[in-house]
Model the fold of this input.
Amino acid sequence: MTEADTATLRGMLADQLLNDGRIRSREIAEAFREVPRHLFVPGAGPARAYADEAIGVKWAADGRPVSSSSQPSIMAIMLEQLRLRPGLHVLEIGTGTGYNAALLAHLVGRTGAVATVDIDEELAGPARRSVTGGRLLVPLSLRGIKHSVAFRQAGDHLASVSVVPCDFMPLTGELAAGDPVRPLGRLPGMSLSVEGHSEFDLATLRAALKQQGQPLPTGVTITPSYPYTGLGLWLALHDPGVGELTAVGPAAGLSPIPAIITHIPGRASITVLTDETSLAAIARPPGEEQATAFECCVRGYGPDGDRLAERLAAAVRAWDSAGRPAGSTLRIRAYPAGAGDHPRAAFTITMPHTRFLLDW
Done:
């Protein structure tokens, strides 16, 4: 393609993000029109580079992606959250391909500065720059449900000013938490991730997948994007057994549980509730496999699957009765883990270094 061709593709991507409401400011639209993403993902080709999709650039031995050029719409959302202006200094942790750093540099201009660092030397070398004041923007996993959160300093803690559902690669390095992902299927690529549990009898759960119960209706209408509406976080906060069954590569089309959610091409997932011998999964009603909105059903698997299905269905109904609280209305306060007394909150999540207080 010629330079004019790729410029046209950049313009089309920017227009799409504007029409979808992901971009709301002229400056960010200009950044997407000017910064050539195809140069940062040369293996993808220009046509794919300017599609609104994440592009994997590095994979683990089992086929799971460990680094990607994030979906442009997610980048646009995060850039809007930051409200950057010329002259600001930005620290980006996780360089990846470098495309997002280039967008940041365009926004802060010649009078600003961007420092970007990455743990993986194959992707990007470390950068050293001074950073002063502003917002902290972080992809935050809350019981396995990920959000892009912009924090501001509020006295002795950080307070969220913007919370947007998202999906990112897991943290790696010395400060990373234990990997909750456990291979589940005989076919490589199928795995189970539950933050509230570390050990399962995987052979028993594999056998449970062959014992499918009848779908249990909830009376609650959802869409395939239900994890991003607040339901996913609600379920994870109310029950430690809630997690995600994921299939990547060839396993994505061969999972015994029909997937409702597809984050990126070749990766499918669905919300489940598990115990030691059985599980229950969010499901579509029979005959509505292609519907864009449908009644949420729950299907049990294994000897105790029906009981788990009832438990999961009750949590879905509770979310609906509570007014369907969304991730965007979530309020998060972050305190040092060793801090003394702190205000009351609906939910508290304690991590090694930080205590998060959550309210809707």
